[in-house]
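USER:
Working in pairs, take the chain set out below, taking as long as you need, and write a paragraph about the fold.
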Amino acid sequence: MTTEDEVEEYCCAFIQLYREEARYLDRTAPWIERVGLAYVKQRVVEDEPGRKALYARFIESQKYAQIDPWAERAAHEVQRCEFTPLKQVV
């Protein structure tokens, strides 16, 4: 991987594979242990057409379900106290 777009493709393909194949409420690490890292590598790294298809499905899914919480916060005035450290570290 050499560009930000390539990193995004690989990451999104991994997330989509996980979304499609993991059990409900399954965390990524136990899912990888169950299916095997070699399987994930084969599907995401070695299978370029498969990776591109997973990426396309992820991007399509995000058109309907993605809410950016940071964009919502940036659009409104933020209370200064939210950024006050809990403790001063010296």
